[in-house]
Each structure stands twice: as C-alpha cells, then as structure tokens.
C-alpha cells in the first residue's frame, strides 16, 4: 500500500509540473530549451570528468614536459593522444577543461549557496524584526553595494590569506574562494527577502501564527520563507553565472585556484602567458567554454525571471 501511495503521489506531482505555467513557458521558448540543454551537457561533462577525460591532469606522475605546448591533433602538428593540445606542463587541454569546469561550477554553486543562506537569513531577520536590527543590517548592505563585487572578493581573499599567513594556500584555495565570492553576493538576497518579508509579516496567516504562540524563528522559517523564495530562485540562477565569472576573474588575477588545480580561469591565465608566442589553444578553448556556460545560465535566469513574474503571464 505504501509503495502504491508513493507511486501515485509521484505521478500526481509529475502531472502538476507538466500542467504548470512554468513548464508551458519553458516548452514555448526554444532559446531556453537550447540553453538548458547546453548547461546540462556542460554540468554532466564536469560531473563525469573522471570517466570522460582521456587523461588525469592532476596526476603529476603521468605528466611529461616533453609533451608540453603541443597543438591540437587536428592541426596536423599535434599528437593524436591530445585532441585539443597540451599546456605548458604537458597536461591534456581537453581533460583539464573537463576537470577545470568541475572546479569552476563547484565554486559557483557553493558560493551561491553560501550567499543565499547568509542573505536570506539576514533578510528575514531584518524584515521581520525591524527597528535597530533592520537598520544595522541594511546600512552594512548599503556600504557593501558601493563597491564592485570583484573588489569585495579581492579584499576578503587578501584578508583571509593574511590572517592565515598564506599557509597551505593550495589546500584552502577552494574554501577561500567560496567565502570571498559568497560574502560579495549576499546583499542582493538580503534586500530582496527583506522587502518581501515586510509585505508578508502583516498578512493574516502570520498574525494567526503569532496568536497561537509560535516562536518568531519558526514563523519566519515555516510561513514567511516559502512565500519569498520566488525572487530568490531568480537571483540564485543569475548569480551562479556571476559567481563563475568572478571565480575565473580571481583565478586569472592569480588569487584563485592554483596551477596544480586549474579552473577555467586558471587555464585562461596560464594560456595568456603563451598567447603571443602562438600557443592560442590553451586560452581559446577554456575561454569559449566559460563564455558558453555563462551565456546558457544567464539565459535560464532571464527565462525564470519572466516565468515567475505574474504580470507577464
């Protein structure tokens, strides 16, 4: 009986999704479907990098400097083992792109999750509590908004590196990047959630929750939060593209992922050093993949914003 009930529930949920306005909007937009397909392919390729990559670029024992700076195999001067050529360390560019996109996407997802949790929490507290708490949180947000996100990320990255003395930089680079990017993006979530919470907190269902004696934290979590998540999903989708770009920028500037664990930004930085000597493939292929990934995610974010906007239905 339990299995049949769960099956029926799953079918009912699937039916509701297929009959929803969002699914109709998705099917109606060919550009969105192509963007979703491209993003899904890149995400799956990154996730399955250990299975798809012909070489392991992180296995230093398998690298040979004799294979460094080989052009793509289809140019006629390359090695058939390396379809997109090799970099200055002899790493296969195709394999490094697969593993590098994995790192870039992981940093983007983790930093967006961190920024969302922090921003949503502060936005809920500021909007629901009001008063001095609201004023302090929003003034901090206003000050941060006066600086570009990349400068905030650079400042935080430099501060953390200074406090730790740069010890084990290669081991902590991922965590430092996530914290730096996350702390530079939380403001958008906080301001959006705060404005929505100011509207929701005076509605009847919140008043009823107060009357029965629920703790303010439970009211914010159970009643207010589900009703302010629509705009948050849009911001998270768009911020994922921004986070990936920010990680690539930081890595390009030399304060992101190290050369031993190259992300897409690190590969572009490495390739830039050899660009004018004719080794164009080291920069071109990761740069192209980065551009395609960011474009696809941005298109999905634009579609989601329109799909969740009741004025455009």
UniProtKB/TrEMBL annotation:
Keyword set for this entry? Cell membrane, Membrane, Transmembrane, Transmembrane helix, Transport
Q: Would you kindly state one Gene Ontology biological process term found in this protein's UniProt entry?
A: transmembrane transport
TM regions (residue ranges): 31-53, 103-133, 145-167, 173-193, 231-253, 274-300
Superkingdom: Bacteria
ABC transmembrane type-1 domain spans which residues?
101-301
List, alphabetically, the Gene3D superfamilies matched.
MetI-like (1.10.3720.10)
Q: Which CDD domains match?
A: TM_PBP2 (cd06261)
Indicate where this protein resides in the cell.
Answer: Cell membrane
Q: How does it sit in the membrane?
A: Multi-pass membrane protein
Entry keyword Transmembrane helix = yes
Give a GO cellular-component term. plasma membrane
What the entry lists under InterPro entries is as follows:
BP-dependent_transpt_permease, MetI-like, MetI-like_sf, OppC_N
Family named by the database record: Belongs to the binding-protein-dependent transport system permease family.
Q: Write down what this protein is called.
A: Dipeptide transport system permease protein DppC
Q: What is the lineage of its organism?
A: Bacteria, Pseudomonadati, Pseudomonadota, Alphaproteobacteria, Rhodobacterales
